[in-house]
Predict the 3D structure of the following.
Amino acid sequence: MGGPGIPTLTTLRLVLRPFTPADLDELAAIHAEESFWWYPRREGMNRAQTAEFLARMLERYESDGCGIEALIDREKGAIIGWAGLAVPHFLPEILPAVEVGWRLSGPYRGRGLATEAGAAAVEHGFAAGGLERIVSIYEPENVASGRVMEKLGFTHWLTTRGPRGEEVAVTELTRERWEEARYSVE
C-alpha cells in the first residue's frame, strides 16, 4: 500500500500528512513530554532520539509503503502528535500486519481527536489501501487507547508481550466488519 504517495488525510479538525525532515523541531518538543511516550517507554525522548525516530519513519514510507504521519491541528496549523497506518515491526509474531496507531500531545487528549484520526486512517486503509485487516496494539492499562479501539470497532485478538516484556493486547478489525458497521449507519 502507498509507496512514495503516502496520503494526506483531512478530517473536520485534523490533517494527517507525511512527515518531512523539517518537522524535527516541532516533533522533538512533543516527544520530550514524558506522558507522550508513557506507553511503552515511561519517559520522553531527547532530540537525538527523535531525529532517529523521524529518519526511521521517513525510511518506512519507502520500505513499507505506509507509515505514521504528522497529526496537525487544522485551526492552529501545529503538529499535535502523530497517527496513521504502519507495519508493527516491534511485534514480529503478528506480521504480516498493518497497525493503526496514534499519540497526541497532552493538551489534545480527551477531545476525540485520536478517534477522529484513527477513523480516517482506517477508512483509508480499507477503502483506498485495499487492506483486509488492520490491527491496533496497546498496553491494557492504557484504558484510553483501548476505548478508542472499541469506538473504531476493533475487537481483542490476542494478548502477548512487547519488546520490553510488557503485556500488550492486539486488537483487530476486518474489512468485512468495518463495512458492516459503516453500512449499518448509512
Remarks:
- The beta strands are 9-10, 14-17, 69-73, 79-86, 99-104, 133-138, 155-161, 167-174.
